[in-house]
Amino acid sequence: MTTEVDQASQDNKDVRRLDRVIIRFAGDSGDGMQLTGDRFTSETASLGNDLSTLPNFPAEIRAPAGTLPGVSSFQVHFADHDILTPGDAPDVLVAMNPAALKANVPDVPRGAEIIVNTDEFTSRALTKVGYAGNPLEDGSLDGYRVHRVPLTTLTVEALKGFDLTRKEAGRSKNMFALGLLSWMYHRPTEGTETFLRRKFAKRPEIAEANITAFRAGWNFGETTEDFAVSYEVLPAATAFPAGTYRNISGNLALAYGLIAASRCADLPLYLGSYPITPASDVLHELSRHKNFGVRTFQAEDEIAGIGAALGAAFGGALGVTTTSGPGVALKSETIGLAVSLELPLLIIDIQRGGPSTGLPTKTEQADLLQAMYGRNGEAPVPIVAPSTPAECFTAALDAARIALTYRTPVFLLSDGYLANGSEPWRIPDADELPDLRVQFATGANHTLDDGTEVFWPYKRDSATLARPWAVPGTPGLEHRIGGIEKQDGTGNISYDPANHDHMVRTRQAKTDGIAVPDVVVDDPSGAPGEGAKVLVLGWGSTYGPITAAVRRIRRAGGHIAQTHVRSLNPFPANLGDVLRAYDRVVLPEMNLGQLATLLRAKYLVDVRSITQVTGLPFKAEQLASAFKEALDDVH
Amino acid sequence: MSTEAPVSPRTALALVPTADKRQTAKDFKSDQEVRWCPGCGDYAVLAAVQGFMPELGLAKENIVFVSGIGCSSRFPYYMNTYGMHSIHGRAPAIATGLATARRDLSVWVVTGDGDALSIGGNHLIHALRRNVNLKILLFNNRIYGLTKGQYSPTSEPGKITKSTPMGSLDTPFNPLSLALGAEASFVARTIDSDRKHLTGVLREAADHRGSALVEIYQNCNIFNDGAFEALKDKQQAQEAVIRLEHGEPIRFGAPAEDGLGGKGVVRDPATGDLKVIDVAAEGTEGVLVHDAHAPSPTTAFALSRLADPHTLHRTPIGVLRNVPRPAYDDLMADQLEQAVEQRGKGDLAALLAGGDTWTVVG
C-alpha cells in the first residue's frame, strides 16, 4: 500500500487506487483462515492482479482454542505489476482473536490497518495469551489504524433468520470478514458465492448462511462509517505476456506437471505414496484424476510407497513417489536400488523444517545434502529444483525427461513455501509441452562371438549411457535385475573388482553427462566479469525474495548480478565460469549453507552464505541489507 | 506395453497371455549357475517350480519373480522369466506396484522367514489384507542362513545361535496364523521335500485371484539341519503331519480300521478350540471335515495353532484357506474405468485451464 495513485469518489465514500497491498488474515486454527485467504486469493486472481501467497499454520489440526500455538494465518500480496513475494509486512491485519493479534502484530508496521474481532477480546481470552490489559483500550495499538468490529455479533445478527444456534452462526464470521475485505478492495464476489454453493451442495442451508454472512460483511463495509475508504488495485495487465492465466499453488502445479508428463511420455502415471505434510496434497490431487489413467496407491509406509512406484516403473509406468524429508530418509535404500536397477523414477521431496519431525508445516531447504548424498555407496541422483509455485509444473516435466531419457531416479526438491504458496500461471498450450516418449526395448541388442543374437539388459546407449528399458511382457527379453553389482552389459551378478569400479564410475558419468541448460545471469550493468562485482546465487523458493531484494538494490543505484540454479545435480556446465567471474558470490539458503558447501567443494570458490532456518521464507528487506553489505565489502 | 483385456474376468490368470507352444521345465531354467549350498532345500523348490510352470501354459515373458534378500531371494536369477532381486523385506511392496500396474502379468514373490516376517513384516500383512494378485512363496527354514546362522522370527524359543548363545528370548511367529489374521484370502503350507504336495499347493495358489501365501518348510542343511525332520521321517511323519484336503475329514496318524488316520481333529465343545482324539476310542463322529472355502477364518486359524512349535507334531499342511475376495488390482482398474465412464477420458487442456481464468491480451 505504498502509492496512492488516484483518488476518486463513489457515492459518499472515497475510492483510492493502490499499486499493491499485503493482507494477512489471522485467527484460531479452527476459524477457517486458510479458506478465507484462499477465497480472497481466487477473487484477486480472477481480477487479474499479480499475486503471491504465504499460508502459515500450526502442525496441530486444532491446537487449543485461543492460544498462541493455535494461530493460523494466510498472507496475500497483490499488485498491479509483477511481484515476487508474499510481502515482508502486512498493510492490513485481520485478527480474529487476541492470540492472532499478539502473534502477528510484531510483523505489522505502524500506520497499517488492523481489523479486530472485538467479540473475542474477553478478559479470559486476553489472559490466556498473557495480555495484562486489553490492547484495544490500553493504547498499545496507537499508531495503527484500528477497526474495532464485533464480527461474531454482526454475523450472528445477520443469520438470525436461519435455524442455527449462536455457536453455529458464529462459525460464518470468517465469511463476514471476507465480505468486508472484498468490499474494501473491490474484489469480485460471484466466484466465492459459486464456491460456497458447490462446497455445501449437500447442505444448502449452510451454503446460504455463509453467503448471507459474506454479503453482510460487504454491506457492513459499504454502510459503516468506520470504513470511510475503499481501494482498488488494477489488473497487472502489462506485467504479463499475453495468454490465459489462472492462480496455482506449487503442489497443484506439480500434480498437473506429473499428469502432463505422463501424457507427453505416453506412459501411465503410477503414484506410490504415504501421507505426509506438506506433500499429501499431491496425492489428493492425483487421486482425483483416475480418468487420466492415473493410479494412486496409498501405501502402508514410505518404503512401500516408493517400492510400489519402482515396481510399476519396472512394468513400464512413469513411477512417482511424493514425500517430505523424513519420508526420504525411509526411502533411501529403495532410491539406491533404483540407482542400481537404472529405472526411471521420480522422488518428489516437499521439504519442511527438520531434523526428525521438525516443523511439519513450515518451509526449509535443508534436504539438499540428503538428496545429493543420502544413500549408501556411490549413488548419484539428479536433482531438479523449481523456484516458484508455477514453475513446479515445468520442473515435473523436466524431472520426467531426465528420468526417462537416462533411466535413473530423479529428485525434485520443492518446499513447503512453494507447495502451499500460489501465484498466477500462464496456462500452457498442450502442443507447447515437450515430447517425452521413450522407446522400450523390443529385441536382441547384442551379438555374441558365436553369432548368437542376445538381449543384454545393461548394454548402454553410447550418448546417454542409459540402459534399455525392457518391460515384462516383451517376448525374448526375459532378464533379471537386482541390487547386487552387475556386470556391465550382461547384467549378470558380478563381484569382479574392476567391473565394480567401472560400474560406479559409469553411473556417475551418466549423471554428470545429463544435459541441463546453462545458468543465466541477470545483470543490467554488464556481462559476467564486466558489470557487477557481486553475484547473488540462489536455488529453489528463495527466488522470489532474492529477486525482490536485487530490485531494491538496483533501484537504489547498486550493481548486483543474479542467477538461479534449477539443476543441482549435475550443475549447469557454465556454473564454474560464472562463479569465478565475480569478486564476491553470496548465496541465501534456508539451511546452514548446503549448496554453498557443494559449490565450494566443486569449484573452489569462496561462496558466502546468508542463512535462515526459521521455517519462514526470507524477507526481501532482510536480503537487501545483506546484499548491500556484500556490495560495500567489495568496494 | 500393457495389453489389458477389455473385460475384467475374475479368474486368476485370465488376463495373462498364454504360451504359443508347449513348454518344459527347461524353458524356465536361466543360464545362471545355481549357487545355493549343496543339499539346500531351495534346490528342490526351484526344481518343483520350474517343473510346474509349464502346466500353467502362460507366456513366460508375462511371468515375473520378485524377491527380497536372503538365500531364497536368489531364486529369480535362476528362473528364465522376468525377475527382480530387490532389497530386504520389500518384495511385496515392489510386486504390489508391478501387479497393480500390469494385470497382464503373473507376479510371484519369493521370500524367507527373515525377509517376510522380520524386516518385511509390514509389507507382507498389507499385501495380504489388500489381496493384491501376488503368489507369495515364503521359504521358512527357521534360521538366518545368508548372515550365517542367527535365530529368525520363526525359530523356536530358546534357540542357541551365534547371536543367542544363552538361547533366544523371542516368541516366534506362526506364519499361517499371521497371514490369517492379516485377512489373507489364500493360506497354505507345504514341504520342500514333498514335490507332489508342493506342486499341488502351487497349482491351487496360481488359480487363486488375489494374494496367496504359501509357506514352504525348507531345510537349511548348514545352519538348521533337520529342523523339519519330524515331518519328513516316514515313521514320525505319520503322527506329526496332518494333511488337509478340502472336503475330507481331518484324520492323521497310523491308520484306523477304515483305512484313514487313527487320529481325528474335533471341536472341543467346552472351549470351542480344536483338539485331537483317538478315533478308535472316541469314534469318527464329530471329526471335522476340512472346509478351505469357509467364509470365516476361525477354524483355519485354530488348525494353524495345532502344531507344537518345538516338536512340530500335529503340523497341518495343505490349503488352510482359499476364499474368493475381490483382488486389489481389479478394484483399482475398475475405478479407473469407472472414472472414464463418469467423466470421460481425461482432457489435459481442460484440466490445466481449470475454473477461474483471466486473459492478458498482448
Give an overview of the whole structure.
- The complex is a heterodimer of chains A (635) and B (362).
- The longest helix of chain A is centred in the middle third of the chain and has 20 residues, at 204-223.
- Chain A is 35% helix and 21% strand.
- Chain B is an alpha/beta fold and 362 residues long.
- Chain B has helices at residues 41-56, 91-101, 113-119, 121-130, 175-181, 195-207, 229-232, 234-240, 279-282, 298-304, 328-343, 348-353, and strands at residues 63-67, 82-85, 106-112, 134-140, 186-191, 212-217, 241-243, 251-255, 261-267, 274-278, 315-322, 357-360.
- In chain B, the strands form 2 sheets. Chain B has an 8-stranded mixed β-sheet with strand order 2-1-3-4-6-5-11-7, with helices on both faces.
- In chain B, strand 8 (251-255) and strand 9 form a beta hairpin.
- In chain B, helix 3 (113-119) crosses helix 4.
- Chain B is globular and about 95 Å long.
Secondary structure: elements and pairs:
The complex is a heterodimer of chains A (635) and B (362).
Chain A: E1 4-10, E2 13-18, E3 20-28, H1 33-47, E4 50-56, E5 71-79, E6 92-95, H2 98-104, E7 113-117, H3 123-128, E8 145-149, H4 151-158, H5 166-170, H6 173-184, H7 190-199, H8 204-223, E9 229-232, E10 243-249, H9 250-265, E11 269-273, H10 280-287, E12 295-298, H11 302-314, E13 318-323, H12 325-341, E14 345-351, H13 368-373, E15 383-384, H14 391-406, E16 409-415, H15 416-420, E17 422-426, E18 446-447, E19 453-454, E20 480-482, H16 497-512, E21 534-539, H17 543-555, E22 561-565, E23 567-569, H18 575-580, E24 584-589, H19 594-603, E25 607-611, H20 620-634
Chain B: H1 41-56, E1 63-67, E2 82-85, H2 91-101, E3 106-112, H3 113-119, H4 121-130, E4 134-140, H5 175-181, E5 186-191, H6 195-207, E6 212-217, H7 229-232, H8 234-240, E7 241-243, E8 251-255, E9 261-267, E10 274-278, H9 279-282, H10 298-304, E11 315-322, H11 328-343, H12 348-353, E12 357-360
Parallel strand pairs in B: 1-2, 1-3, 3-4, 4-6, 5-6, 7-11
Antiparallel strand pairs in B: 5-11, 8-9, 9-10
Helix pairs in contact in B: 1-6, 3-4, 5-10
